[in-house]
UniProtKB/TrEMBL annotation:
GO terms for molecular function: glutathione peroxidase activity; glutathione transferase activity. The keyword Cell inner membrane does not apply. The chain crosses the membrane at residues 12-36, 83-111, 131-149. Pfam families: MAPEG. GO terms for biological process: cellular response to lipid hydroperoxide; glutathione transport. It comes from the Eukaryota. It comes from Loxodonta africana. This is Microsomal glutathione S-transferase 1. Conjugation of reduced glutathione to a wide number of exogenous and endogenous hydrophobic electrophiles. InterPro entries: MAPEG-like_dom_sf, Membr-assoc_MAPEG, MGST1-like. Keywords: Acetylation, Endoplasmic reticulum, Membrane, Mitochondrion, Mitochondrion outer membrane, Transferase, Transmembrane, Transmembrane helix. Coiled coil: none annotated.
Length: 155
């Protein structure tokens, strides 16, 4: 059995923990950004959310969609689709004893690509900016998964 001091001494795991904290903080920021956009634009999807602005027909005018709110929301959903697999595969990868410099490259590329993807989505930058950022992050996660399956897991 591995004790926690061994995990704390694992440089690849500590690097993963650092970059996972950064990317999870970014994802938390996106939920706050979505809420901020909804409040400033007065755009809600649930009747109880707009009760503060009136009742009945007056409140219904706030039940709508807005392009800016939807753009932030879609960027956040894209984070959820990509960061969750990275966290699971990255954790296993970091505990599998990878070369630390290779692990750092994987983690930095993923975090950088996700931050750039968000900038490209929210600005919005023309394609293929967002697509390239997506595929870099996806490729990193796939690379770690491939490395695990090829070198470390018993199938």
């Amino acid at each position: 059995m591995v004790d926690l001091t061994q995990v704390a001494e694992n440089e690849a795991f500590m690097a993963f923990a650092s970059y996972a904290t950064i990317i999870l903080s970014k994802m938390m920021f996106m939920s706050t950004a979505t809420a901020f956009q909804r409040l400033t634009k007065k755009v809600f999807v649930n009747p109880e959310d707009c009760a503060h602005f009136g009742k009945g027909e007056n409140a219904k005018k706030y039940l709508r969609t807005d392009d800016r709110v939807e753009r932030v929301r879609r960027a956040h959903l894209n984070d959820l689709e990509n960061i969750v697999p990275f966290l699971g595969i990255g954790l296993l990868y970091s505990l599998s004893g990878p070369d630390v410099s290779t692990a750092l490259l994987h983690f930095r590329l993923f975090v950088g690509s996700r931050i750039y993807h968000t900038i490209a989505y929210l600005t919005p930058l023309p394609q293929p900016n967002r697509a390239l950022a997506f595929f870099v992050g996806y490729g990193v996660t796939f690379s770690m998964a491939y490395n695990l399956l090829k070198n470390r897991l018993y199938l």
